[in-house]
Amino acid sequence: MASLILVTGGTGTLGRIVVPLLRSAGHEVRVLARRGGDVTADLLTGDGLQPAVDGAETVLHLAGGPKDDDVAARNLTAAAARAGVRHLAHISVIGADRVPLAWFRYQRDAERAVMDSGVPWTMLRAAQFHDLVLKAVTQLARLPVVPVPGGLRFEPVDARDVAARLVDLTLGAPSGLAPDLAGPKVYGMRELVRGYLEARGGRRPMLPVRMPGRAGRAYRAGDNLALEGAERGRRTWEEFLAERVTSA
């Protein structure tokens, strides 16, 4: 019988793709979520977490939020170590150790919790998903004049490409830090907004603005972009928009 895989965040953007892939590969999957999963647990308080982890040979940690992902990772890794988990796979973000913003620090500290857990681990740093970029540009494009931070570049990746890579890594042996995974193209923020507006069949004037401080300098330096040797997804921003925006 195939080993049990616990997936945290299995009802989220990435989890909804990953879980069917794991099950179609013949594995028993237990989905942990605050609601709608196979088991319910609170990663931030630890309530219900140990029984959710017990019996799993592999844990795939996808759950995340706007803050305190480091707390969730510490609670999960402690439970995984007590349960004798043999492989802990974790999704993180490119630039976790380079971009000086609070959310990236949470990701960096979550990475450290995984690395220091004593559980054999695999970690994939991915670029921002197309879905997240779409939310951002949708909000900007609602304004009569769209503010566009100059010098900011992104390489958005499709969640389906990330899911496929994560499944391969999760079903393999623990391998430490995997090569970054980013989208096939690098875009300036202006290009991303323009692509969205064109897909909607609309137009907006755009106003260049400067992102201040250390975070602005980090983004202009490309600290959020993939390192040399990164792997690339197949689906472009334009292809994603054609599916998600134009068709809608």
Q: Summarize this, please?
A:
By secondary structure, the protein is α/β, with parallel strands linked by helices. It is 40% helix and 19% strand. The chain has one domain (4-246): NAD(P)-binding Rossmann-like Domain (Rossmann fold, 3-Layer(aba) Sandwich), CATH 3.40.50.720.
Mean pLDDT: 94
Rg estimate, integer Å = 19 Å
Characterize the main sheet: 7 strands, parallel
Fourth-tier CATH superfamily name: NAD(P)-binding Rossmann-like Domain
Shape: globular
The secondary-structure class comes to alpha/beta
Number of strands: 13
Helix content: 25-40%
When the domains are counted, the total is: 1
Q: Which architecture does the CATH hierarchy give at level 2? A: 3-Layer(aba) Sandwich
Largest sheet, order of strands side by side? 3-2-1-4-5-6-9
CATH topology: Rossmann fold
β-strand percent reads 15-25%
Order of helices and strands: EHEEHEHEHEHEEHEEEHEHEH
| Name of the top-level CATH class | Alpha Beta
State the end-to-end distance. Answer: 43 Å
User: pLDDT under 50 segments (min length 5)?
Assistant: none
Pfam families: NAD_binding_10 (PF13460)
Organism: Nonomuraea corallina
Protein name: SDR family oxidoreductase
Domain NAD(P)-binding: 9-131
